[in-house]
């Protein structure tokens, strides 16, 4: 069996970097050896890792493509070393049934630079009509952009379980949000207007549902889950809750739900992440236009991040703050595993999705160089390591730090490679 391509370089394989050759056929890894002969051998510099999956993005397509669209969002993903995104269902017309799911799929078809999966939204009474193709189900327990807070009906739980996909909770309790709500004029007040207690309450409820695959996304306060162990739940955190807090002078670019917390809560979350207590880092990439971010009080909530997640984490790895294997598991392996896609690991039969980077390539993020339609990143000036090279399904899609190939992204059916 001839390979289409053989890669040669320093691959992260079974827990360490090793000089290897990797054979690829039809976009899939077919051989992993010290030496492989072949016609097309491609030498890759730097450390090579499987490319990443971001389990939480809002590309706003269709419906609000003035904020972002699949081409701009997916291009940003690729520049940031992410070759698969799971896109959220809170489009202007939310993805609450089979037909809307199909419409979204066909709207995106052929327009994405990276592979993608799509969530459906549970709205309290639509479990019967959710698309069986959904890669995940999103439940907003509290109101947010294009979504109002819902509770889960007991009778829907078997239906959700039968879908065999992660059920992902935005855990802010609606009642609690209402009780605490006021017009916040800065990050500190925004934090108080959607306090951590609303998150703990919602998590308490979410943990009671008898779900097979439960995910609490964008956990902002580790304190909210203390004492809940033994409950099979996947916890996700975002780079912004790990690295930013409500004392920073970043204005509405830091306005997000759940809010950035106090410095103390942030440091505690980061400490727990660094000691291995969190399963996944995803972004909640949630772009808004410049106009919508102008005046803090009326600004929409949401922070961009799909392009900076892996670079920021690689920055921490380079500075020996974050353990490489912990980074690999939380940003690359676990996200792909959770969604049952054959990515995130160098193994025979897995997709040939890779990135390469040089640890010495630490530089400060310049938001103007990001590829979102509105690059309003609060991470300007943070040190990061961007990938030099990205491959997806055996095709080089970014070389020497620039995108080179076209929109090759495809829909990732659950459980298929
Ligand atoms: O800040 C947020 N923005 N939180 C969400 O839950 C939704 C998101 C958005 O879509 O804008
Ligand atoms: Zn979100």
Mean pLDDT: 96
Broad shape: globular
What is the straight-line distance between the termini?
Answer: 20 Å
Count of helical segments?
A: 10
**Which molecules are bound besides the chains?**
(4S)-2,6-dioxohexahydropyrimidine-4-carboxylic acid, zinc ion
The CATH H-level homologous superfamily of the largest domain: Metal-dependent hydrolases
Helix content: 10-25%
- How would you classify the helix and strand content by structural class? alpha/beta
Strand order within the widest beta sheet: 3-2-1-4-13-16-17-18
Radius of gyration: 20 Å
Instruction: Tell me the CATH topology of the largest domain.
Output: TIM Barrel
Strand content: 15-25%
Report on the architecture of this protein.
With 417 residues, the chain is an alpha/beta fold. It folds into two domains: 5-48 and 348-403, Roll (Urease, subunit C, domain 1), CATH 2.30.40.10; 55-338, TIM Barrel, CATH 3.20.20.140. It has helices spanning 70-79, 98-108, 157-162, 174-180, 187-193, 196-206, 239-243, 263-274, 309-318, 324-338, and strands at residues 5-13, 16-25, 28-33, 41-50, 52-57, 82-87, 115-121, 136-140, 167-170, 214-216, 233-237, 280-281, 354-357, 363-364, 383-384, 389-392, 395-399, 402-403. The strands form three sheets. Strands 3-2-1-4-13-16-17-18 form an eight-stranded mixed beta sheet. An eight-stranded parallel beta sheet has the order 5-6-7-8-9-10-11-12. The protein has a two-stranded antiparallel ribbon with strand order 14-15. β6 (82-87), α2 and β7 form a beta-alpha-beta unit. α4 packs antiparallel against α6. The chain is globular and about 65 Å long. The protein starts with a strand and ends in a 14-residue tail after the last strand. The mean pLDDT is 96. The structure holds (4S)-2,6-dioxohexahydropyrimidine-4-carboxylic acid and zinc ion (ZN). Residues 56, 58, 88, 284, 286 line the site of zinc ion (ZN).
């Amino acid at each position: 069996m001839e390979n289409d391509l053989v890669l040669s370089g320093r691959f992260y394989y079974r827990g360490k970097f090793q000089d290897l050759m990797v054979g690829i056929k039809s976009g899939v890894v077919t051989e992993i050896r010290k030496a492989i002969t072949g016609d097309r051998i491609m030498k890759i510099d730097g450390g090579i890792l499987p490319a990443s999956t971001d389990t939480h993005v809002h590309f706003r397509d269709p419906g609000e493509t003035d904020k972002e669209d699949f081409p701009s969002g997916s291009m940003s993903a690729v520049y940031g070393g992410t070759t698969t995104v799971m896109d959220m269902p809170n489009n202007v017309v939310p993805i609450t049934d089979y037909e809307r799911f199909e419409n979204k799929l066909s709207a995106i078809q052929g327009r994405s630079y990276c592979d993608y999966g799509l969530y459906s939204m549970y709205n309290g009474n639509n479990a019967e009509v959710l698309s069986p193709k959904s890669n995940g189900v999103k439940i907003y327990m509290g109101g947010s952009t294009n979504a109002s807070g819902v509770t889960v009906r007991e009778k829907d739980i078997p239906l959700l379980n039968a879908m065999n996909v992660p059920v992902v909770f935005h855990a802010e309790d609606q009642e609690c949000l209402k009780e605490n709500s006021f017009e916040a004029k800065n990050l500190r007040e925004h934090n108080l207007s959607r306090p951590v207690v609303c998150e703990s309450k919602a998590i308490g409820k979410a943990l009671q549902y008898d779900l097979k695959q439960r995910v609490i996304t964008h956990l902002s306060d580790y304190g909210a889950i203390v004492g809940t162990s033994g409950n099979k739940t996947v916890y996700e955190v975002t780079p912004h809750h790990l690295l930013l807090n409500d004392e920073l002078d970043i204005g509405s670019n830091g306005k997000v739900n759940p809010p950035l917390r106090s410095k103390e809560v942030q440091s505690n979350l980061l400490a727990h992440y660094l000691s291995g207590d969190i399963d996944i880092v995803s972004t909640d990439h949630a772009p808004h236009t410049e106009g919508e971010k102008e005046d803090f009080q009326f600004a929409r909530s949401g922070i961009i991040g799909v392009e900076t997640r892996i670079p920021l984490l690689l920055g921490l790895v380079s500075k020996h703050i974050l353990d490489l294997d912990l980074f690999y598991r939380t940003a690359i392996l676990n996200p792909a595993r959770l969604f049952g896609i054959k990515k995130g690991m160098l193994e025979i039969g897995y997709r040939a999705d890779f990135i390469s980077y040089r640890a010495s390539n630490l530089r400060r993020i310049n938001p103007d160089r990001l590829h979102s339609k509105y690059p309003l990143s609060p991470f300007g000036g943070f040190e990061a390591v961007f990938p030099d090279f990205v491959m997806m399904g055996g095709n080089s899609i970014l070389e020497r730090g620039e995108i080179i190939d076209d929109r090759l992204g495809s829909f990732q059916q659950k459980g298929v490679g």
